[in-house]
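Researcher: Please translate sequence to structure tokens.
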Amino acid sequence: MSGSTDVVLRRARVALAVLACIVGLPAGAADASHDVLAAVDAYATRQADVGQQLWAQPELGYLETRSSALLQDELRKAGFRIEAGVAGMPTAFVARYGKRGNGPVIALLAEMDALPGMSQAALPTRSPIAGQDAGQACGHNLFGAAVVGAAQAVAQWLAASGHDGEVRVYGTPAEEGGSGKVYMTRAGLFNDVDVALHWHPAATNSAAQGTSLANISGKFRFKGIAAHAALAPDRGRSALDGVEALNHMANMMREHVPDGTRIHYVISNGGAAPNVVPDAAEAYYYVRHVDPAVVRDVIDRLQLAARGAAMGTGTEVVFEPTGGVYSLLPNDALGRVMQASLQQVGGVIYDAADTAFATQLQQTLQQRPALAAAATLEPYRDDQAGGASTDVGDVSWNVPTVGLSTATWVPGTQAHSWQAVAASGAPIGTKGALTAAKVLALTTVALLQSPQTVTAAKNEFAQRRGAQFRYVPLLDRTAPPLDYRVRAKD
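Model: Translation complete:
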């Protein structure tokens, strides 16, 4: 048994007493923790290798062919039954292990997509990789690998104990703007799930539960008339003018939207040459707010602005929605179980090499918390306000859901940065992902052993959601935009 497991088990003697009070664990819970932690540790080297392979082959949303195949292969080797290509998405899958019987179905969500324009080596200085555009700037390589690490450990425990229950891994593509989980939710793939678990790479360790921002994203495509920009500009109608007029109106709109609204855009196609009046141009927009109703209203106003921009520039415009997600619905009953598991495992401990890497990388950050923050745990709460968006939100309004973050990045690092890419490919990231795998595995086994906690989580879920709630997706399209990461050319 590894030294790290010994430390965790010493913590567990205290933390298990707390956990037993929360979830009413039966006799033998300590043995279950011992077995599942040992199984995670036994897989740790392979988990690190999987995470590195995903990091070295960053694939964008809906294009995660090799990444999805790798995760599926690992789960198949662990005895999982795989259903691939679900919900109209070639890279989405559901992997199942166990027999339900009288036990619950526990889902673990596994993300894998990378971000464009984030190429970076696993070095503490800015070092893009030649010939590579994408990078794991949100650490989804670690996300997927750690979920597999946790799931295979739970599967071993189910097989050895004969306990009723099923653990599932949902391979969820295109979290970064593609809303992959929304299509899986709409397809009914979570209908028989009792609890869903997720985690996310971060710069801190936290099982705090809270909200996120609802989001609608889409592309405004303008069509004009090409002409020589010097010889015959009067014959042209610039699609780029339409984009710029829309962007100007959007920026004026910022003063007249509810507090907390976020509007972001990029010009994803602005034409090919300045001496040609562009006949095609595109702006890619996100609108966010914690209230889905506000998001719907603002995106409707942007569509009206786009029509005005087209009228004023003599162009035409169409809007293609690419994503739409709900805010997260927190669950305190589940959060407290996750917190107890995190307390058993503890934070991320740096060795000398990690400290040297982190110290050098921190010189590039605006904020530089003490490196010891990676080893500490954030206080628990169930009302934390988040500023990001995730398609886990739609899952959380359909199934009681709980998540955590672990310190895979150097303290002070922000997501979607080259610093996050670097740490996600470094030993610091691997260690944080191992922490996550242990917490997920412990939490899953605790829930499998405690039907009363699952019942309490469902009761809280129903109360928070409200009796009148009916799930209507924010995503207004029938089929996944499998090419949404491809730059528009027409």
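Researcher: Any highlights?
Model: The first strand starts at residue 81 and ends at 84.
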